[in-house]
Amino acid sequence: MELAKINVSMELCAAHFLLQWKRKEEKFHESLSKKPSAESLRSALSFFIIARNFSGIKADRNVAQEIIDMLLEIDKDKSLKVQEKVAALAAKFKVRFGKNNISAASKLLWLRRRAPYVIYDSRAEKTLKAMGAKFKSRDYAKYYEAWRTSYELYKPTIVKAVRGLHNIHKILPEWDQSPEGTREMVNSDWFLERVFDIYLYQNSES
Asked: What are the phi and psi torsion angles at 127 (to 5°)?
């Protein structure tokens, strides 16, 4: 399964996500994985450009708390698989806000737990289909399956792409993580998977 046209290399995507994680996503994960606050939720939704899907989120703290409650309720339901949790949270969003927002559901669950969740993104979906994947749009279960299949094919390339990232402190003196800690992080499943997300997104013909 090959991309017809490569716009951004895997190495650039790996470096991009390392900086994005340390500058933005890490703090959102730390908050949402522990005791989410209305402020941290709003910031996370704004960063992922999905806040507009939740009417009243900016002005009403109660709306943010409703979303947090939905997230926590679905997260603790041990009877559901990963794909089912995303679908269930999206369904709750539809009842409350009028839109079955799979993208928002997957992003919030990823920020809370990271792997094995996969973020749903329409641009990443376009790239997967350009690579030959066959599935209906907005079908998260099928998207997840296609994403996993493609990821396994690209994983050796991703592992190679992150190989030198532990030396980032040589370029950014302000980097506050040890080379050993950085190496461990960039080789973790959740990091490698998000690099693939960035790769799919950046190589979409939008």
From this structure: -65, -40
